[in-house]
């Protein structure tokens, strides 16, 4: 890092006992630093973006170890990063994304645009363009995922309009066609394609995911023990699957090498989590939240922010605010999917 600068959102403050609180008050981002000598506080005061790293170490030669720990903490950024490999229009469009990532990301980086570039280079398949998929696809397009392919075999029906991002003029149109048109209107800088594809067999799914980095599984058919989620579990691709069961809204996040969907179901049954979605009652809000949580999971798989190991599900209960669910299973010894991962690793 050439000119270290404390991120403004992470500005440190001194606690009454002399320790330092850095990273604000957000759980997962904040940290407390013991500072019995006061050196860390002095070093942080010098990290205002006006001095080179060498200048700081010249002024505080005894602080080299502390300075390195601070640089590694993720609370410090490069004050003069190289210009990003993005057009001027893209920089304007995604400026708030980058502000978000530099706040929420605790990995030291040469440029705050690195994660936006990862999104631009990512190829995401959105399967299912209903209440979950339309919200997920729109969020991914707006966020700047560079290549989006959207697939659904159905046409828009009047009963879809309470929750799916279609308008009355879309009734009778193919969902894929209408979604592609809508997403291109949201973001013309990205590649958006669509297909009227019905995924009827595991092989259909395995073929569909070829060439993509992440799958956003927003389709809930076929259901059951030989359903589409189980096929996704065997497809060898990072994926997020969102849905709802009445007011229970949830998303599962998976990737090869981590506890799989089958292992989650085994743990979820024990914990009373309903991971298969099979009831029609839904609001625009419950579907939209499921879609946005799916998009957020896809973004986290692409960027690593938050740096949460895949192999978990979380949910919120709209009938009981505050009743959140988080399940992280362990791989079962007898699990063939996790066993296959173990062989590959
Ligand atoms: Zn497993």
Small molecules (ligands, ions, cofactors) in the structure: zinc ion
Number of strands: 13
Assigned CATH superfamily of the largest domain: NAD(P)-binding Rossmann-like Domain
- In sequence order, what are the helices and strands, one letter per element? EEEEHHHEHHHEHEHEHEHEEHHEEH
Written overview of the protein:
The protein has 2 domains: 4-80; 122-344, NAD(P)-binding Rossmann-like Domain (Rossmann fold). The chain is 37% helix and 17% strand. The chain contains 13 helices and 13 strands. The protein has helices spanning 39-46, 53-59, 64-72, 88-93, 95-104, 114-121, 131-143, 175-186, 202-208, 228-233, 261-271, 284-303, 336-344; strands at residues 4-6, 13-14, 20-22, 31-33, 76-78, 123-127, 147-151, 191-195, 214-217, 239-245, 248-254, 312-317, 324-327. The two termini are 34 Å apart. It binds zinc ion.
Essential attributes:
345 residues; alpha/beta; Rossmann fold; 2 domains; 8-stranded mixed sheet; 3-stranded antiparallel sheet; 13 strands; 17% strand; binds zinc ion
Summarize the structure.
By secondary structure, the chain is of the alpha/beta class.
């Amino acid at each position: 890092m050439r000119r270290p600068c404390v991120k403004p959102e992470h500005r440190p403050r001194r606690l009454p006992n002399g320790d330092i609180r850095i990273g604000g008050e957000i759980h997962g981002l904040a940290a407390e630093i013991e500072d019995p000598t006061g050196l860390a506080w002095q070093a942080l005061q010098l990290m205002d973006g006006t001095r080179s790293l060498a200048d700081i170490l010249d002024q505080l030669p005894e602080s080299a170890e502390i300075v390195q720990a601070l640089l590694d903490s993720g609370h410090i950024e490069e004050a003069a990063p190289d210009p990003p490999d993005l057009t001027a229009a893209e920089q304007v469009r995604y400026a708030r994304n980058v502000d978000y990532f530099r706040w929420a990301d605790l990995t030291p980086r040469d440029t705050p645009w690195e994660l936006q570039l990862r999104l631009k280079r990512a190829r995401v398949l959105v399967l299912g363009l209903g209440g979950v998929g339309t919200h997920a696809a729109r969020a991914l397009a707006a966020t700047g995922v560079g290549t989006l392919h959207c697939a659904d075999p159905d046409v828009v029906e009047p009963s879809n309009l309470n929750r799916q991002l279609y308008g009355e003029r879309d009734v009778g149109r193919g969902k894929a066609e209408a979604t592609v048109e809508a997403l291109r209107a949201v973001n013309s800088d990205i590649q958006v394609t669509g297909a009227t594809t019905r995924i009827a067999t595991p092989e259909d799914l395995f073929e569909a995911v070829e060439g993509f980095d992440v799958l956003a599984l927003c389709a809930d058919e076929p259901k059951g023990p030989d359903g589409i989620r189980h096929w996704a579990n065997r497809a060898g691709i990072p994926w997020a699957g969102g849905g709802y069961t009445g007011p229970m809204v949830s998303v599962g996040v998976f990737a090869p090498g981590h506890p799989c969907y089958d292992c989650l179901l085994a743990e979820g049954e024990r914990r009373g989590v309903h991971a298969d979605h099979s009831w029609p009652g839904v609001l625009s809000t419950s579907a939209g939240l499921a879609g946005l949580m799916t998009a957020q999971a896809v973004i986290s798989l692409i960027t690593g922010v938050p740096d949460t190991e895949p192999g978990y599900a979380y949910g919120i209960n709209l009938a009981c605010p505050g009743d959140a669910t988080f399940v992280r299973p362990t791989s079962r010894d007898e699990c063939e999917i996790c066993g296959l991962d173990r062989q590959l690793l």
